[in-house]
Design a protein that fits this description.
It is built from eight helices and five strands. The chain is an alpha/beta fold and 209 residues long. The longest helix has 25 residues. The chain is globular. It binds thymidine-5'-diphosphate. The site of thymidine-5'-diphosphate (TYD) has 15 residues, from α4.
Length: 209
Amino acid sequence: MGLFISMEGPDGSGKTLQMDLLEKKLREEGYDIIRSREPGGTPVGEAIRSILLEPSFTGMDAVTEALLFAAARRQHVMEKIRPALAEGKIVLLDRYIDSSLVYQGIGRELGMDYVQMINDPAIDGLLPDVTFLVYVDYEEGLRRKRLQSGHTMDRLEEEEEDFHRMINKGYYSLAERDPKRVILIDGARSPEEVAGEIWQKMQEYLEKL
Ligand code: TYD
């Protein structure tokens, strides 16, 4: 029931703009949708988010971090995502378990299997029907981020270069790990071209609604 779409991508991939464009298009076409983001999406989740992104918490242990992301996710699934899907809505989600697999599993070197295990109780068997992975390579992502004037870096964005290079590689391997669900979208094109491809791929899923 319903349709669960998640959007993923490394920092600077243009993921958020693509979320905006897809949300707008779905609303224009009259679909009943809710948009949300991780970490966050519920009052409990937003409180956890502020802990996770707090720049002064430089000493946060990697497992603590992974557990906090998973805790926020569990609350999100139970309080918001499952109920919306049960009502037949489209759920459009900015980041989900794949972000943890990549940022904590690869970036923090906890391993994808370990992070999957931590997340099993969080997702409670719920995976997106489709995940759009908007991909740009590391240099392009960084260049775009720096161009955004007035953007202050959060704790995760301030990680050093190697971390972000690993994130980019990790994202790429996600599409290989689960090619049926994760659709790789080349983000190094104009926003209109990227949105056009996403919308074209969406048709298959909308038909099943
Ligand atoms: P946010 O400001 O939402 O970033 P973006 O606009 O790039 O989505 O910050 C979320 C940050 O948290 C981002 O750097 C990715 C990271 N993250 C994880 O490390 N693990 C996770 O499970 C999730 C959901 C996000």
